[in-house]
Structure formats: structure tokens, C-alpha cells
Write a structure and sequence with these properties.
Blueprint lengths: L7 H45 L15 H11 E8 L2 E4 L8 H8 L8 E8 L2 E11 L4 E8 L5 E8 L13 H4 L18 E3 L14 E3 L5 H15 L3 H9 L1
Parallel strand pairs: 7-8
Antiparallel strand pairs: 1-2, 1-3, 3-4, 4-5, 5-6
């Protein structure tokens, strides 16, 4: 009996078989690589946190992380405490850096009381740093960062990154000339009210000498990305103000 391979049924069966085989291979690959991916994500978060508190290998102009081999050792050395704040209560959690801010925000559905707020306490050269992760939306996709503060909510360091902002424009939020502008900026106004830091187009202080104006100069051609940075700083860091108020009262 002749086998016909030009029939529609043969084509359909062949396509189904290929889908099953390819799907199985992809599922196996994803499963086998999952531990490695998770480990890389963990190390990257540690590098980001350390960068924000000034533990990095920066040269005169470039932003350079500590090496992946050193990340765990330096994280253990400089990060003295990991906290999670919820409903105004702070509790220690050694895996606070593993909290997924995107998922946490979505689960809270706009209710700040349901948020799990990670906070990392770092000590370097006799100085205490409070490092906070932030997450927001840029022009094309997600943007995020880590900001370190002193007890008075003055920025000591910052690191920003993105998923898909425009190269040479919004993608420049991860360049040192932009990130370093935030160092020394006050999040509170003269009356102690939270104001944040605005990425301001046409900022009257382009050389960033005034650290109490709650503003830094915007990146040319990246208005929407800059607005996203402004928004995530204001929305996320404001949630930590009760924690800093409590520091002053104790």
C-alpha cells in the first residue's frame, strides 16, 4: 500500500509532532537553566545594591559593578541588615533582595498597606546607607533602580536601569553623568515634607549645584523616560518616609 506524504493529514500530523518535540526541548532547556538564571539575577541585584551605596569599580566616567565573583562576599561585608516593611512595621528578612517589585506592586493593586517594601542597611567607612529599590515605567518598557539615602533622606548614591529605552536617549539613565547628579539631592523640602526629585527639562540649575531644589537636569530627547524616573522616585521612596520619621524619633 502506497504511503502518501503529500496529504493534508500528513502535514498536520508532522506539524503537531514538531510542536510537541520543540516544546519539550524548550521546556527541558528552560527547566535546566532556571537555577543558573535565578543565581545570575541574585548576583545582579547584589551588585546593584552595592553600587548604589558606593561599593563599585567606577573609573573617571564609567559605571562599573564589582565583579560577579566578589559580589556575595562584598554584599555580606557591607550590607549589615535586610528589612521588609509592611503596614509600617519593619522586620528582618535575609532574602529581602529577592522580592519582585513588579509582582508586589501588581498584587497590592494600588494599596500601599499591602506592599512589601525591601530596605537594605549598609555600613561603609563609618557611614550608614539605607538602600531602597524602585520600579516604574519608561517610554517603551520597565525602568528600575536603587537609591541609597542617609538618615535625613538625602541621596547618597543611585543606580538606574531599563529594559528597552532608546539607545543614546532614554537608555542614558544608566550613564554615570546622569546617575551621579542625584548624589546629595534632598527628597524633603525645607519643611520636612516629601517632595522627591524631578528630572526637569529646562532646569534652572544645569550644573546641579543646588541640592535642595528637588530637581536634576533632564536628558535631552528623553522626556518621557525622565518623567518615569521622577514618578518612580516619588511614588516608591515616599512610602519609606514613616520609617525615616521613626529614625529621628528614636
Amino acid at each position: 500500500m502506497e504511503n502518501r506524504t503529500d496529504k493534508n493529514s500528513y502535514t498536520i500530523l508532522f506539524a503537531i509532532a514538531m510542536v510537541v518535540i520543540v516544546g519539550a526541548v524548550l521546556a527541558f532547556t528552560a527547566s535546566s537553566l532556571s537555577p543558573k538564571i535565578s543565581e545570575n539575577q541574585r548576583i545582579e541585584k547584589q551588585q546593584n545594591i552595592l553600587y548604589a551605596m558606593g561599593v563599585n569599580q567606577n573609573d573617571e566616567s564609567s559605571a562599573v559593578f564589582v565583579s560577579t565573583k566578589e559580589a556575595q562576599e562584598l554584599f555580606d561585608k557591607y550590607i549589615t541588615k535586610q528589612l521588609v516593611i509592611k503596614n509600617g512595621q519593619a522586620s528582618e528578612d535575609e532574602e529581602a533582595y529577592l522580592i519582585d517589585l513588579k509582582k508586589d506592586k501588581a498584587a497590592a493593586a494600588g494599596d500601599a498597606s499591602k506592599r512589601n517594601l525591601p530596605l537594605f542597611i549598609g555600613e561603609k567607612d563609618g557611614t550608614t546607607f539605607h538602600i531602597i529599590p524602585i520600579y516604574g515605567k519608561g517610554l517603551w518598557d520597565a525602568i528600575w533602580g536603587y537609591v541609597s539615602l542617609d538618615d535625613n533622606m538625602v541621596i547618597q548614591g543611585a543606580y538606574f536601569d531599563h529594559k528597552g529605552e532608546t539607545p543614546g536617549l532614554g537608555a542614558n539613565i544608566k550613564q554615570r553623568y546622569f546617575m551621579d547628579d542625584f548624589i546629595g539631592e534632598h527628597l524633603l523640602d525645607a519643611n520636612g515634607n516629601f517632595k522627591g526629585v524631578e528630572v526637569a527639562k529646562g532646569n534652572a540649575d544645569p550644573t546641579n549645584e543646588d541640592k535642595t531644589d528637588n530637581a536634576v537636569d533632564a536628558i535631552a530627547g528623553a522626556t518621557i523616560t525622565g518623567d518615569g524616573v521622577t514618578a518612580m522616585i516619588k511614588s516608591d521612596l515616599k512610602l519609606y518616609k514613616p520609617y525615616f520619621d521613626n529614625l529621628k524619633n528614636n
